[in-house]
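Figure 6 in text form: structure in, sequence out.
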């Protein structure tokens, strides 16, 4: 019974997490950047869905054409020519692992 309840909760979150109300809070499910999505149409105008897979959702990110479009003072960069989205988008820089590229 517990597993059925958890499955129901997870499905409800996945289905209800996508929004297009244009919120800017950045919380998952508010429709703003950082919200879960499956396609660009799940995100507000000026945003793109990045990282969505066949089953797993992606996140809405602000579109950009240069770093000046992103919050560079907070470490964000414009991810140009991404392989996980339809256009360039603002993203936090990837953390370095310190393994020397090995």
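Output sequence:
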């Amino acid at each position: 019974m517990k597993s059925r309840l958890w499955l129901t909760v997870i499905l409800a979150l996945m289905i209800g997490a996508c929004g297009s109300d244009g919120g800017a809070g950045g919380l998952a499910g508010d429709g703003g950047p950082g919200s879960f999505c499956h396609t660009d149409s799940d995100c507000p105008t000026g945003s793109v869905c990045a990282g969505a897979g066949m089953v797993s959702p992606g996140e809405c990110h602000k579109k950009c054409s240069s770093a000046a479009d992103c919050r560079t003072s907070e470490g964000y960069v414009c991810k140009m020519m991404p392989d996980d989205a339809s256009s360039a988008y603002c993203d936090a820089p990837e953390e370095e692992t310190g393994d020397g590229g090995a």
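Caption detail: Residues 4-31 have pLDDT under 50 and may be disordered.
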